[in-house]
Amino acid sequence: MPSNKSIIFKAVPDGYPVAGEHMELVTKEIDIENFSLADERYSSYEIGQVLDGYGIAIVVKSNNKKYQVGDYFVGLIGWEEYSHITANVVSAEALAKEIFTKFKVPESHFIGLLGIPGMSAYVGLNKIGQPKKAASGAVGQVVGQIAKIKGLRVIGSASDDSKIKYLEEELKFDGAFNYKTCNVDKKLKELCPNGIDIYFDNVGGETLDIVINHLNNFARVVACGMISQYNTKDHYGVKNLIQIIGKRVLIQGFIVSDHFQEMESFRKEMVEWFKQGKLKYKEDIVEGIQNAPQALINILTGKKFGKMIVKIC
Amino acid sequence: MPSNKSIIFKAVPDGYPVAGEHMELVTKEIDIENFSLADERYSSYEIGQVLDGYGIAIVVKSNNKKYQVGDYFVGLIGWEEYSHITANVVSAEALAKEIFTKFKVPESHFIGLLGIPGMSAYVGLNKIGQPKKAASGAVGQVVGQIAKIKGLRVIGSASDDSKIKYLEEELKFDGAFNYKTCNVDKKLKELCPNGIDIYFDNVGGETLDIVINHLNNFARVVACGMISQYNTKDHYGVKNLIQIIGKRVLIQGFIVSDHFQEMESFRKEMVEWFKQGKLKYKEDIVEGIQNAPQALINILTGKKFGKMIVKIC
Question: Where in the numbering of this chain does the Oxidoreductase N-terminal domain appear (chains A, B) (predicted)?
């Protein structure tokens, strides 16, 4: 019987998780032939259970007519070598195997540029940001490029200088700064002398607070993520919220899955831009399931560059 | 020549303003006959200048064909016995003298129920709150009643117990609590066991922070005012903002004057409800211009009950 390496959720972290302590690599045998396929399984965020995330897998056993052995599956899968994808996950999944043959772009892009991060950028900017004339993470790099395609002036922020260089030199952003090392308020005054109309927020906390200071009247804040606040109990208190009244600011939290009905138009437009060379997408690929916990920690601490992808097998 | 008592802006307060110290009563003679009517005048928020606010005045001199001596004017006027209303203010004013004869409701209601506070309640609830199935200030008491008319379950919050009693017994809110004395988190759990869909925020600060904890998915926060944050340099830091992503919360700052094009439909519907007895409106009337500074301070500190109106003459 083949062995199956999995990363399980071992303990709730207090701050940032530690590989080994809060996530653990376990190896079990798996009897694929006699494995009983179910409609639902455990929740992935319970102690002792395998973690999950968006990934690409090849089907080795299936009782679903849409998926034959050898087909690709793109969607929520366990952090493991062999993962049991249940009917509820498959049916909730807007991504289907046909996409690989339909669009001819690198496979990994279906969990990045054309997956959840790309779609978060696309939907968040278009529907909430309402670009009228808007970074380096999985989402931010895409938002900035779409905004440039739409003719906006784009300033990016990221957490290290190599990313800043990439944003300015490769993605041709109009400016970029390291929010961890510079005086954000001063930088924004310098880079956005006419204020900010759209803020696509993936950071939250103090950065958001300072940005509010620079928002123009009728500005839109796309609240997509607040990575600075994920692993701390001592959340930063945003003090400038009072400004949103006089400035008539819109702040809208959103989750991309609410917008999956737009998957087709999103993908069609994005692939076109990608093939025209208008969109670049940086990936940070880590090899081996055993490195998945550290890869997650690197996302949380900013020690990665672009969409983090773990190549399991 | 008649004398004209005015309240001038004397100094910028550090925290709450103090009557006499930051606002001062001055008396000057005014030569009405030879007074030169101008298109524009000073800004009311400069040191030494007369303060202004929404009020009702009787015209004693006019070079505007629309306003004859003896007519009423409703709009922005100085805190003074005789006030010079310039052309730019008159033309910006959506409120016209005809309203008194058109709608037969108490005059004072045109700066309350049918004025800026009433319209803030109406527009904010309808356009941002999107009542699908939302207190005791000038705005809050109206929001709650409109929300009741629309069939919503309404919980009010106010800053003293007599207001709470009024909200519950007179306005028939489904519940009300004193946000200054009770444990807001506990109270909300008790009064809103199914969470909150619309929060009409006139308070901001800690109350907003706690409310975010109780918001449902897709909740709307109408950011109309943040009175807890107006007179302090040490703004409260809102820590729960991170929740707005997962809950897909909309937070929209707004100023009612952006919506003046809806004045007519607002007034028509409100007067109908008022005449049907579906809307009550509590006013706190203070006599004498000399008491205006303290009246303002009472708004800021919550020591008033309903729309604050100063009867100058």
Answer: 39-88
